[in-house]
Amino acid sequence: MITEVIDLKKEYERAIRTAAELIRNGGIVAFPTETVYGLGADAMNETAVRRVFEVKGRPADNPLIVHIWEPAQMQLLAQDISPLAERLTKAFWPGPFTAVLHKKSGVPDIVTGGLDSVAVRMPGHQAALDIIRESGRVIAAPSANLSGRPSPTSARHVIEDLNGAVPLVLDGGRCAVGVESTVCDLRGEVPVILRPGGVTPEMIREAAGDVRLHPGLLEENGKGPAVSPGMKYKHYAPKAEIVVVVGSKLNVAKTINALYYEKKKKYAIICTHEHISLYKGKRVIDLGEGSGEGARNLFAALRKVDEAGIEKAFFHAVDTNEMGLAIMNRMMRAAGHNVTVAVREE
Q: What is the Cα–Cα distance from 309 to 98, expressed in whole angstroms?
């Protein structure tokens, strides 16, 4: 198969029309969203959805998110939608927010990993919305990468992983958010974040009055069914070994600087811009200023690790406020929960 790449800036109408036709006919398409690039198929076509799993090498019990173009389509997929779910989807759609709801029986089990819940999102990207609307389908779309690899935030990343395996990639440039959507279980009285993303706990608390964090966000969660994508398996990982170093700012730097010369390996340090001065003379991959920019650059940084042939990369942990929780969630999973607690200064 030859993968066609269409630049949305140059051929928007043809790109949308071609993608929508492929979806209608049971094909798969890689397209940009505001979070990461998605690999989409008609969510009600089991054969098409199975092809998504095959191309990605994705475990069958890892549920997919179904993307819609207008809130009314939520009724096609979910039942017993609570006032809480109505309030939060109204607050954050279109955008990087996924609602886990009670599914309707017509949603194929392959989409939901055999669960009685369905994850639904209305993306905040015009091309994604136009593809869904033009196709006349609801679209199941995980990230457009090989399973376990860093998620793609540019068309180049998609091609690196899936060239020749998908018929069409729409190039919409760099993704604005850079990490996958916040997934929130809205089946109870209090929203529970299953995966952090562009809608932060602070934002949800403001809209709902309360929010809970699933205990598996920063801990290993390999047992039981995965209610949300990104909960059960090692994700987002480059080929290199990743070590997350936690503790106070100076203690983390002291520990990383000591470990950097422990063995004769090709090392790198991943950190936000504020910490660069602590690692003079070493190979540093800069995530940029603040947690928002850090999240936007995170997956590209992990791919740079492989491009540079790095064998081991140390991540200087960030605070978990705002987008920091999403960064730490992704890095803990990229590291396979390989964590070093920083030594204390005497």
A: 35
CA–CA distance from 267 to each of 55, 283, 330 (Å)? 32, 7, 20
Distance of CA 322 to the CA centre of its chain: 16
Residues 299, 323, 226, 76: is their CA dihedral positive or negative? negative
- CA angle, residues 255, 250, 237, in degrees to nearest 5: 55
CA atoms of 40 and 38, how far apart (whole Å): 6
Domains of the chain with bracketed CATH: 4-213 (3.90.870.10), 241-341 (3.40.50.11030)
Cα angle, residue 169 at apex, residues 163 and 172 outer, rounded to 5°? 130
Distance CA 285, CA 162 (A): 25
Whether the Cβ atoms of residue 197 and residue 119 lie closer than 8 Å to each other: no
Reading the chain (346 residues) residue by residue, the pLDDT tens digits are 899 999 999 999 999 999 999 999 999 999 999 999 999 999 999 999 999 999 999 998 899 999 999 999 999 999 999 999 999 999 999 999 999 999 999 999 999 999 999 999 999 999 999 999 999 999 999 999 999 899 999 999 999 999 999 999 999 999 999 999 999 999 999 999 999 999 999 999 999 999 999 998 988 665 555 566 655 556 788 999 999 999 999 999 999 999 998 666 799 999 999 999 999 999 999 999 999 999 999 999 999 999 999 999 999 999 999 999 999 999 999 999 999 999 765 4
Task: Give one DSSP letter per residue of 108-144, joined into a string.
Answer: -HHHHTT-SEEEEE--S-HHHHHHHHHHTS-EE--BS
Given a contact cutoff of 8 angstroms between Cβ atoms, the answer to whether 207 and 87 are in contact is: yes
The CA distance from 255 to 224, in Å, is 35
